[in-house]
Automatic annotation (TrEMBL):
It is a multi-pass membrane protein. Keywords: Cell membrane, Membrane, Transmembrane, Transmembrane helix, Transport. The chain crosses the membrane at residues 7-32, 62-87, 99-119, 139-158, 203-225, 251-273. Residues 62-272 form the ABC transmembrane type-1 domain. InterPro entries: ABC_transporter_permease, MetI-like, MetI-like_sf. It comes from the Bacteria. It holds the Pfam family BPD_transp_1. This is Sugar ABC transporter permease. Belongs to the binding-protein-dependent transport system permease family. The lineage of its organism: Bacteria, Bacillati, Actinomycetota, Actinomycetes, Kitasatosporales. It is found in: Cell membrane. SUPFAM superfamilies: MetI-like.
């Protein structure tokens, strides 16, 4: 079987160039200008970048973005793997329970954030009715509480997506491996750690890269739940970009932040691919 010709990829290539490459180039150009949204941009050289790295809020926002991304990976990965492997089985009522669990994946991030903001409201939400568990009930009043809420909401919404990845990967594991392990006396737990997890390696790498990119570009959840507060304790880089560009009308600095996020996300993703050996793996269907 021969490979499809380039014409098959042409529509997707044109779409990607128009809506990804061209905007990225324009953002890169704007990052070297001064522009308030009116008139013509003025060339500013590296002024925006110099002020960016001298701004303690920007440096803090980058570390917060990395922290939230790391916590998201640490929380969502094990839960997604366990749920994905379970959903790939043949348990009773598995299909119904899986469908119910995947409902958050169908909701927009805005709707999810509004829902959780109401549920965790310190005056009228669940914390107000369970002071024995939440104390004063104001989870948004401290950095630890606010970050915890962001991690919880992110996991609630996006864990189902990564569960789908692991579910598909788990179903692709050859049953003969489990049959051979069972003959050798390996139980369910041993089969999971010695057969299932190694077979999910590619899925884990793919899922982690998606989490990294998603975590570094999270915006609407922070905008609705914490508004970067308390103070600047949850002002991640994407929200800082919004503040600079659309509230401070400094589109040059905002573009610099956006471009920096792209570079950081790309660098981390490439590092994960390189260190994991994912780029050296080959599919059994290679060349089809």
């Amino acid at each position: 079987m021969t490979r499809p010709g380039f014409a098959w990829a042409l529509p997707a290539t044109v779409f990607f160039v128009l809506f990804a490459i061209v905007p990225l180039v324009l953002v890169a150009v704007l990052s070297f200008t001064r522009w308030n949204g009116l008139g013509s941009p003025e060339f500013a050289g590296f002024d925006n970048w110099n002020r960016l790295f001298d701004d303690p809020v920007m440096v803090k926002s980058l570390w917060l973005s990395l922290l939230l991304t790391l916590l998201g990976v640490a929380v969502q990965t094990p839960i997604s793997i366990l749920l994905g492997v379970w959903a790939a089985g043949h348990q009773r009522n598995r299909a119904v329970l899986s469908a119910i669990y995947f409902v958050p994946l169908l909701l927009s991030a805005t709707a999810v954030s509004v829902l959780w903001r109401a549920l965790l409201d310190p005056n009228f939400g669940v914390p107000a009715e369970a002071e024995w568990l939440f104390g004063d009930g104001n989870l948004f009043g401290s950095q630890t509480g606010a970050i915890g809420v962001l991690v919880l909401v992110g996991a609630w919404q996006f864990t189902p997506f990564h569960t789908l990845i692991y579910q598909g990967a788990a179903r692709a594991v050859p049953p003969v491996l489990y049959q051979a392990a069972a003959i050798d006396g390996a139980g369910t737990v041993r089969q999971f750690f010695h057969i299932t997890l190694p077979q999910l390696r590619n899925a884990v790498i793919t899922s982690v890269i998606l989490m990294v990119v998603g975590g570094l570009t999270t915006f609407d959840t922070v905008l609705i739940l914490t508004q970067g507060g308390p103070g600047t304790d949850t002002t991640i880089s994407a929200y800082y970009m919004y503040q600079k560009a659309f509230k401070g009308f400094d589109f040059g600095t905002g573009s610099a932040v956006a471009l920096l996020l792209v570079l950081v996300a790309t660098a981390i993703s490439l590092a994960v691919v390189r260190l994991s050996g994912y780029d050296r793996m080959r599919s059994t269907s290679e060349g089809l």
